[in-house]
Design goal:
It is built from no helices and 12 strands. It is mostly beta strands. The protein has a single domain, classed as Ribbon (Umud Fragment, subunit A), CATH 2.10.109. The strands form 3 sheets. A 5-stranded antiparallel beta sheet has the order 11-10-2-1-12, with no helix packed on it. A hairpin with a 6-residue loop joins strand 1 and strand 2 (24-31).
Length: 158
């Protein structure tokens, strides 16, 4: 198990102290020190290679001040780890991010709810210094019952 301040694996979800001093946050690690990250038409590019993704359907979710039908995609990192992300069908504020290099001693994080996450793409957050990492998320339960983690998929619970 990794401890706070150590380099996490790409694809892990980590908890960290926000560099802006506004408490703690939890996002997925996408970029490691020296990686180059870009977003074009809402699709993630990592070190010059578009990250593979496949449509998985839609979900209806409450987003700030309204309900919206979001497209769900399975995104697969070069290491083979897959996870789901949700995106609005309308263009979002972070759908076009020019290529940027992740700073030494830092990570780049993205939220799984891509159009509504203030993650490393935002000026308020940016790269996350390794010494801000509190720990990694083993599993999480979401408030909507359709997103609950099945007990049989969590060692020791099933």
């Amino acid at each position: 198990m990794r401890t706070a301040g150590q380099l996490p694996k790409r694809g892990e979800v980590v908890v960290f102290r926000r560099p802006d001093g506004d408490g703690k946050a939890m996002f997925r690690v996408i970029g490691l020190p020296g990686d180059k990250i870009a977003v074009n038409s809402g699709q993630l590019t990592l070190n010059g290679i578009r990250v593979a993704r496949a449509p998985q359907g839609t979900i209806r979710r409450q987003v700030p001040e309204r309900w919206e039908t979001l497209s769900v995609y399975s995104e697969t990192l070069p290491e083979g780890l897959s996870y789901e992300v949700a995106e609005s069908p309308t263009p979002g504020r972070f759908d076009e991010i020019p290529e940027t290099a992740v700073a030494a001693g830092a990570i780049y994080v993205l939220g799984d709810n891509r159009d509504y996450a203030d993650d490393s793409r935002s000026a308020q957050l940016g790269d996350i210094p390794l010494d801000h990492i509190v720990g990694r998320v083993v599993f999480r339960l979401r408030p909507d019952p359709s997103w609950l983690v099945p007990p049989e998929t969590v060692p020791g619970l099933g």
